[in-house]
Amino acid sequence: QVQWVESGGGLVQAGGSLRLSCAASGRISSANPMGWFRQAPGKEREFVATINWNGGTTYYADSVKGRFTISRDNTQNMVYLQMNSLKPEDTAVYYCNRVLTLGVPGIPPTPSDSWGQGTQVTVSS
User: Fold this and answer.
1) Has residue 8 got a pLDDT over 90?
2) 39 and 30 in contact (C-beta within 8 Å)?
């Protein structure tokens, strides 16, 4: 069973930027599409962004489109989430996971593994 390790979160002022990283504790196939999700206090976990195996196709939630960028480095088995123009409503614990599909409007992607610890992102106003 693969375990996911997220890092890079922190406290930032509104308008600031953070870059999250995701690593797998075990060896994974670079053919897997990957995704970032987040869970705010008192809310359900939601999809943020997905990326296909070679980075050629990405898909974003409307709430982050134009501000966040998902990328991957298959040589390092790493997935990243660059977050710019952060807003207080982006405050959440962020998680990465493999996904079964990239998702389409109205049908969010489905994660395929257990969740890691996540990394806390707090945006102050």
Assistant:
1) yes
2) no
